[in-house]
Amino acid sequence: MAFVLEIQTSSTQPYIKNYLISLIRAHEIPSKVVQQKGKIICAFASEHPDLQICLETIAQQLPASCFLTGSTHYDLDGEPTELPDFEQLFTLSLGLCPSCQKELFDPASRRYYYPFTSCTHCGANESFVRKYPYERINTSFKFVRACEACEDELKTKGIKEKHVTNSCHTCGVPVRLVNKENERYANDAGSFRTMFEVAAKAINDNKKVLIKTTMGYRLFYLAEIAGDDSILMMINASKITDYLSLITEEFNALLSIERPILNVAVKDESLKEGFGATVYAKYPDEGFTILLGAELQKLGVDYCSYEVADETTDADILMDYDLEVSTQSDMRLFLNKDVQFIAEGERVSFPSLAPLVNEDLLSVAHGLVGVQGHGRLLFDKMERFDSVTVKHANVLEGEDAQTQYHSSQYVMAQDEASFMSVVAEHQYFGKKCVGAYFDEEPSFLYYDGKKVIRIVPPIRFDPKILIEQMRQLRDGSDRLVTNLEEKRPEVYAKLLALQQRDDVKLFEAVAILLDLKDKSMRGVTKEAMRFVGKGGIQIDTHVKDNRFDHVAFLASIISFQLADVSTSILSYSIFESFGDYFSELLQELRGKTKAETVILCGSHFANQSLFSRMQRNLKQTPPLMNINYPIGQENAVVGGAYL
After folding, report:
1. Is residue 84 part of a domain?
2. For 194-242, what is the HEC assignment?
3. Same domain, 157 and 222
4. Is the pLDDT score of 400 beyond 70?
5. In the prediction, which pLDDT does 546 show?
6. Rounded to whole angstroms, how far apart are CA atoms 280 and 261?
7. Which domain range does residue 33 map to?
8. Do residues 317 and 178 share a domain?
9. Whose CA, among 110, 174, 267, 613, lies 20 to 30 Å from 53?
10. 412 and 502: one domain?
């Protein structure tokens, strides 16, 4: 008989499976480990004397993942006879696993306060990859020769076996700390610890510190008032819920191995004054930020702010090193009590593998490419591939399409490619589906089982004759504009200013009219979260000539402003009304096309007010969304491989 441990996961990425295999190999227990259909199944030789010890090790060391949903165990006929092994075609950028974090703070460890600490299955390994195949010679560590102890680890069964970028203080990478007065280097435990002490003290003294982390440059500072691009880095895990109002799923996700960014509600009143009702929050993820956070916590600091930066960003102190780092956008996770999905970002989703459908097709979008590899599709950054031979290329419209990648090149639309990525992930080929894509402009699509068709294409917001169009909207609309000019001259002036630009996005216009500090969808979303009532008002989201009517939408907002409706109610009502708009039109399209399935994609659906409304309205037909990929623009490269 075999003892079977079954772990349920929504992710198809292999890092948890491979981590399990490494732990099992360390105990040399014959086993078989497979990942399929939302499960990781581990079948152990049940009579092995170290089985209980191995299971206890798994319980203690297996990283928590926001994609793990449960586990069970049972007995099964058959007895595994060989050790499991894992393939390492690519690596990801993740947070540090419990074992590597323990190494960071163990004075007896060869990696005490060494910020490049990681293992085969955790850390920012993806950041150092230059090209394929995934070998040390093809990473930034090719000039860093592993010491004897690190070489031994590469050959020893455990979590550092086959670790391509393995290093320690003896063979590792020195780091320099530079300010206006001097420059110092760290290359051993003592100097590294001093370096992070100095950086933390500088931040606590209200200075800005620019650090080249293993996931790219980040600017850290102690700020009571957050900028539009600030991320709140929660340092003290035991006090997170003192500052933020989190459901259990959000708390667990923050501390998971994926280390996502979450948009969460602020609880602490003093924090709320500077950051507002909601904040983008993150927990320290890699060596530099974990060590910096530890030193800040010693100074009594429970959180700080940071921004994604580059080497030119102005700062009081710079922490830098000479390895080349390839950056990815952070994973932003959407969570409520019922649903979880990736809103946007490359990290954790890429690189990735998918079933191969057409080996003669290349997909290109947003600097990512989908190519054939090992009988599957490999999605990753374009610069990591030398060349491929295909017959056709699907290239995203816009910037990507300006480059001629292939003589037979088809230009694909963002909404069509995103929609197709959901079809492909759920293996809904041949089934009728209707859906919506929402990123500034809404569009509606239909998949007839063979191809994606735009039923209601997006229409670009053009503010150049906005005031005149508003006057002619309907009978009495001219009075609306006159009243606006007389009673709210500051809003009227903003409308006039909008007409002088041709690069205005719809929600930028909304934020400007509402006089929000953050002139974007993000600003309107944060303002909506300030509303604590039970229901909003109906904003005009009707269509004209089968298209979304921007003029009627903005005129409706202005009319409520003239009636002194609060900005928070207006912001909340915008998303509630959009929820009704999408739901009604999707149900109508379902009826006309006889499609049974509804699909949602586009980063604007990652909005609590909007999505909750749609969840309620589409309760009988819950929508399909991306599982392993973001619902935002990054999924286009996946859909492009199947169009």
Report:
1. no
2. HHHHHHHHHHHCCCCEEEEECCEEEEEECCCCCCCCCEEEECCHHHHHH
3. yes
4. no
5. 64
6. 6
7. 2-76
8. yes
9. 110
10. no
